[in-house]
Specification:
With 351 residues, the chain is an alpha+beta fold. The chain has 7 helices and 21 strands.
């Protein structure tokens, strides 16, 4: 099947929880940033009646659910497509996931690993702790504001990165990548998404006052690319289904657009007449040929069962193998003097 690529941000907060923008403001920022869709995920509330197209951008509504009684805070869950408020199930993460699945929704584990900041108790880490749960689609591999929080180890660092955040952004936390590979090694199918965790709140330190960060800025950095079965139609319900079906199938990759645009990435495996792309299974009929293409020159890494098995510098990589297992792609690119994470794909599963 010839899939179509759409790009969106899946982790955003509005005035209905702890963000500062209305849904229309979020959609307008997404439109200026060139996104195809954006999903508002306010804390413990599902806002009804605001989904729709706004100047060509599809705005959808999900929810980020957590147990407010749990101290310290942990195990926030991103929920899409449940079409109802799910906070009543927050105290039991497994029960919450099952309730979402029963409603036809899908779940991703939010910011599974975090580094806190000593500057404020509100900047404590909020990791995922309940790793025995099952039934979720994937995890949030890269969360922009989560990474930013981890950069704030001093007041000086806060000032530097508050005004020049892309100096600090390096990629997903190594702990998150290792946990993802461990889950895949258990035989689970685990897709990945990237989100901004946008709030657009204003912070002040002495005479310095700044919005960290405007929605539009965040929507130009880490986003999720989804392969859908047909181009978006302009019909809200049809296009919602297309996007959620792509997410559920794991046809996703995370792209960081500051070093260069990530639209146009391709990852495919074939064996005989059998062909698979991101999120799909490939049944071996002969040798497996894996093809990777990236939009600009980068260091491309093909990872098999958690280990790099091939790499290339350029815009393409081809690898031939006879090995079954889980294959995923990372692309790294030099930007502002350092090598930065650029593209991280969900896996292809070779059987």
């Amino acid at each position: 099947m010839a899939y179509h690529e759409v790009v969106g941000n899946l982790h955003v907060h509005t005035v209905y929880s702890d963000g500062t923008g209305l849904h229309k403001d979020v959609a307008a920022a997404a439109q200026r940033a060139g996104l195809d869709f954006v999903i508002a995920t306010d804390h413990n509330i599902w806002v009804h009646g605001v989904e729709g197209y706004y100047d060509g951008v599809l705005l959808l509504v999900g929810e980020e659910v957590h147990d407010v009684r749990r101290l310290p805070q942990a195990s926030h869950l991103l929920i899409y497509g449940a079409e109802a408020e799910m906070v009543l199930h927050a105290a039991d993460p497994q029960g919450l996931i099952e309730a979402v699945n029963q409603r036809g929704g899908l779940c991703f584990l939010a910011h599974p690993f975090e580094k806190g900041s000593p500057l404020d108790v509100e900047l404590a880490p909020i990791p995922w702790d309940d790793w025995d749960v099952e039934g979720y689609v994937g995890l949030e591999l890269w969360n922009t504001m989560s990474e930013f929080k981890g950069l704030l180890w001093s007041r000086l660092a806060a000032l530097v990165y508050g005004y020049a955040p892309t100096l600090g952004f390096r990629g997903p936390f190594e702990e998150t990548l290792r946990r993802w590979d461990a889950l895949l090694a258990e035989g689970r199918k685990v897709a990945v998404i990237g989100g901004s965790d946008a709030h657009a709140n204003t912070y002040q330190m002495g005479p310095f006052r700044r919005v960290l960060f405007p929605y539009e800025d965040l929507f130009r950095w880490v986003n999720t690319h989804v392969l859908v079965e047909q181009p978006l139609t302009g019909n809200v319900e049809t296009d919602k289904r297309l996007i959620y079906d792509g997410l559920r199938a794991g046809r996703t990759w995370v792209g960081y657009d500051a070093p260069g645009p990530t639209r146009g990435f391709r990852f495919q495996a074939r064996s005989g007449a059998n062909v698979a792309t991101i999120g799909e299974e490939l049944v071996r009929a002969a040798a497996v040929i894996i093809d990777i293409e990236v939009p600009q020159r980068a260091e491309i890494r093909l990872i098999h069962n958690g280990r790099v098995v091939a790499r290339a510098k350029g815009t393409s990589l081809r690898h031939t193998t006879a090995e079954a297992g889980v294959y995923r792609v990372e692309a790294w690119k030099r930007f502002r003097g350092l090598k930065r994470g650029w593209i991280f794909s969900s896996p292809i599963y070779v059987r």
